[in-house]
């Protein structure tokens, strides 16, 4: 296990979430699945307690801790995409698997974890600064899933 790992709290579906992420994003995989050695407040001996997994190269630990805590937008994975096809693929996988759309390239998966599906054209435009950044930012503010062609058009003015 990595020295620094992101621990994500799930009600009871950490393994299902990890398998979904591994099947959706490159450089992702499910590692060890650990079962509870005895009963605990939100589970029984033998239930999946933790799952080691990697999402787009980032080591994570899913903890089936019960319903006490929920994910919020205060934490999200930001996935950089190269084009509209890649943006669509990830967005559609998350939203189409019981997730929900939000604004400005944000969506939530069915477990409530937030994702930013962010085309590089948008981050490049924002990094450019000035009027180009303002036009791209203003265009993004009206979007749910980011429209690469609209961001490119906004960059050009």
Please specify the SSE layout and strand pairing:
Elements: E1 6-10, H1 14-24, E2 29-35, E3 48-55, E4 58-64, E5 76-81, H2 84-96, E6 100-101, E7 106-108, E8 114-119, H3 120-128, H4 130-141, H5 148-156
Parallel strand pairs: 1-4, 5-8
Antiparallel strand pairs: 2-3, 3-4, 6-7, 7-8
Protein described:
The chain is built from five helices and eight strands, in the order βαββββαβββααα. The chain is an alpha/beta fold. The protein folds into two domains: 70 residues, Roll (2,3-Dihydroxybiphenyl 1,2-Dioxygenase, domain 1); 87 residues, 2,3-Dihydroxybiphenyl 1,2-Dioxygenase, domain 1 (Roll). Strands 1-4-3-2 form a four-stranded mixed sheet. The protein has a four-stranded mixed sheet with strand order 5-8-7-6. Helix 4 packs antiparallel against helix 5. The radius of gyration is 18 Å and the shape is elongated. The protein starts with 5 loop residues before the first strand and ends with a helix. The model has no long low-confidence stretch (mean pLDDT 97). Pfam families: 3-dmu-9_3-mt (PF06983).
């Amino acid at each position: 296990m990595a020295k620094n790992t992101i621990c994500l709290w799930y009600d009871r579906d950490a393994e299902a979430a990890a398998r979904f992420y591994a099947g959706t994003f490159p450089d992702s995989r499910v590692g060890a699945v650990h079962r509870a050695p005895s009963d605990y407040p939100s589970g029984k001996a033998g239930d999946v307690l933790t799952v080691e997994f990697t999402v787009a190269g980032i080591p994570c630990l899913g903890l089936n801790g019960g319903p006490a805590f929920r994910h919020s937008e205060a934490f999200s994975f930001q996935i950089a995409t190269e084009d509209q096809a890649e943006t669509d693929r990830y967005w559609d996988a998350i939203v189409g698997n019981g997730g929900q759309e939000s604004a400005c390239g944000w969506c939530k998966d069915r477990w409530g974890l937030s994702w930013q599906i962010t085309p590089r054209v948008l981050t490049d435009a924002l990094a450019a600064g000035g009027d180009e950044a303002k036009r791209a930012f203003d265009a993004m503010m009206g979007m749910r899933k980011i429209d690469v062609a609209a961001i490119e058009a906004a960059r050009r003015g």
